[in-house]
Amino acid sequence: MTCTDYIPRSSNDYTSQMYSAKPYTHILSVPVSETMSPYPGQPQYQALQQSQPYTIYPQTTQTYGLPPFGALWPGMKPESGLIQTASTSQHSVLTCTTGLTTSQPSPAHYSYSIEATNHRINPKTCCCTVAQCLEYLSSNLLLFSVQRVFLWDLDETIIIFHSLLTGSYAQKYGKDPTIVIGSGLSMEEMIFEVADTHLFFNDLEECDQVHIEDVASDDNGQDLSNYNFSTDGFSGSGSNTNHSSSVGVQGGVDWMRKLAFRYRRVREIYDKYKTNVGGLLSPQKREALQRLRTDIEVLTDSWLETALKSLLLIQSRKNCENILITTTQLVPALAKVLLYGLGEVFPIENIYSATKIGKESCFERIVSRFGKKVTYVVIGDGRDEEVAAKQHNMPFWRITNHADLVSLHQALELDFL
Fold first, then answer.
1. Up-side HSE of residue 366: CA atoms within 13 Å toward CB?
2. Residue 142 has what pLDDT?
3. Residue 9, pLDDT above cutoff 80
4. Helical (H) or strand (E) element with 109
5. I need a surface site. Which of 47, 141, 201, 234 has the fewest CB within 10 A?
C-alpha cells in the first residue's frame, strides 16, 4: 500500500477535495399501464364501491409500484430459506484465542462457523476476552437473519450538505443564499475540525480506506492505553525526510502497523461518542453545533428529521440493515455522521467510502458480506448509485425532494419495502 505525495492545503480547499458535483439530469421512469379486454362471453362486472373513502398521498414526480415486503422483487430471489447451512466451501471457521490458560475452567478457544465478513478475528493476534469474542461472534451470526439491506447515499439523500455549499439548494427552494452557504461552510469547518483533532485526518488523509477494518489485519493487538500517536514518527504523506529511519518504509510492516493503530483508535472514538458527539467538543462548540443543526433543519424544512423516520423504522426491524455508502473520504465521513447525529443509526462497520473504488465496487463488497440471497434496496439522489444499483439488479428509490422522503416512509410503514 502506498500513499500519494502530501500537498499542504488550506481550509478553503476542503470542499473540492471532499465532494464532486453531480451534473446529471434525473430520469424518471413511468410504468406503462395496460388495459385488459374481457374474454369472449365473459360478463362485465360492476366495479366494487369502496365503503369508506381514503386519502392517497399525491406523488407527482415519481410513480412507485413496489411489491410488499414479503413478496418478490423483480429479478430478486425468494426471501425464504435465507439461512444457509454452514459448509467449508461457503463459510470460514474462525478461531479466536482468548488468552486463557488451560488451568482455567473456561475453554481457551472458541470455533464458530460463520459467514465470511469484512471484519475478521485474526487467530494469530487476537488477545480479547471470552466475553469480547462471544459478543463479536454473536453479532456476526446475526448476518444469517438479515433479509433486506438498505444502501443509503448520504449527501442530498439523508442530509443536505453539498448543495448548501454550492448554493444550489438556496436557488431551488428560494432561500437566502448568503445564509444557506454560510451554514454549509460552518458545518464543513466543524467536520474537518473533528476529523483533524480527534480522528487523525492529518495522518490519514492520504491513506484513505474504504472500510474501517481494511487495515485491521496489520494490527498486532498492542495495548494503546499509553501509546503516544504524536511521537511514534508515523507520516501518512509521501515524504518521510523529516523522520528517523525507525519510522519504517511507507507500506512496510512497521508503517502499516502504525496506520492500523490509528484506524483502531478512530473506531474506538466513534463507538464511544456515536450517541453523544457533544462529549468530543468544548461547551462552546457543543452549543454552536446545536444552533447550527437547528438552523440547517429550518433552512432545509426538516429534511434530516424526515429522512430519520425511515432510517429508524428500518432499524427497528430485526431482519433489516441500514448501510451507508458515501463519496466522502472515510474519516471526514465518520465526522459528518457523528455531527449530524446519525451515529446510532449507522454502526461504524456499516459505513463505506466510495472515494477510492466507486459505488459499484462498494456494492460488490456489501453483497459479498451479506450474500446474494438478501434483497437489497438502494436509496439515493445520484446517477452513480442508480447505475450501480442497475448493474447489481437492485431496486432504486430516487430522492429528489421532500415528497420522495415522505413517500419512502409511507412505503416502509405499509411494508412495501
1. 33
2. 53
3. no
4. strand 109-115
5. 47
Note if 153 is an active site residue. Answer: yes
Task: Spot the catalytic one: 5, 13, 153, 415.
Answer: 153
For 148-222+254-413, give the CATH class: alpha beta
Q: What's the length of the chain? A: 417
Distances (CA, A) of 109 to 87, 99, 126, 294, 401: 20, 8, 11, 50, 53
Which residue from 338, 365, 192, 364 is spatially nearest to 267, judged by alpha carbons?
338
Q: Provide φ and ψ at 396, rounded to 5°.
A: -125, 125
Annotated binding site: 153, 155, 381
Task: Report d(CA 372, CA 55) in Å as an integer.
Answer: 38
pLDDT reported for residue 86: 33
Residue 175, helix vs strand vs coil: coil
Residue 208 annotated in active site: no
Q: Is the pLDDT of residue 125 over 90?
A: no
Question: Are the C-beta atoms of 381 and 62 separated by less than 8 Å?
Answer: no
- 247 pLDDT above the threshold of 60: no
User: Cα-Cα-Cα-Cα dihedral of 119, 125, 129, 132, to 10°?
Assistant: 0
**b/e burial code for range 352-377 (CB count within 10 A of at least 16 → b):** bbbbeeebbebbeebbebbbebbbbb
Place of cell 455508502: 325
Residue ranges of the annotated binding site for Mg(2+) are 153, 155, 381
- If you search the block for the grid coordinates 438498505, which residue do you land on? 150
Q: What is the DSSP string of 42-53?
A: PPPPPPPPPSS-
pLDDT band at 255 (very low <50, low <70, confident <90, very high): very high
Report the pLDDT value the prediction gives residue 235, as an integer from 0 to 100.
83
Q: Is the pLDDT of residue 178 over 80?
A: yes
Contact (Cβ atoms closer than 8 angstroms) between residue 60 and residue 28: no
Any idea what DSSP says for residue 159? B
CB of 260 closer than 8 Å to CB of 207:
no
Q: Which among 317, 344, 330, 13 is positioned nearest to 147, based on CA atoms?
A: 317
Question: Domain locations in the chain?
Answer: 91-144, 148-222+254-413
- Among candidate residues 5, 13, 155, 295, the one labeled active-site is 155
Record the cell numbers describing residue 361, joined without a space: 465496487
Rounded to two decimals, the pTM is 0.68
What is the percent of the chain where pLDDT is above 70?
62
Q: Are 65 and 31 in contact, with CB atoms under 8 Å apart?
A: yes
Whole-number Å distance between alpha carbons of 161 and 166: 9
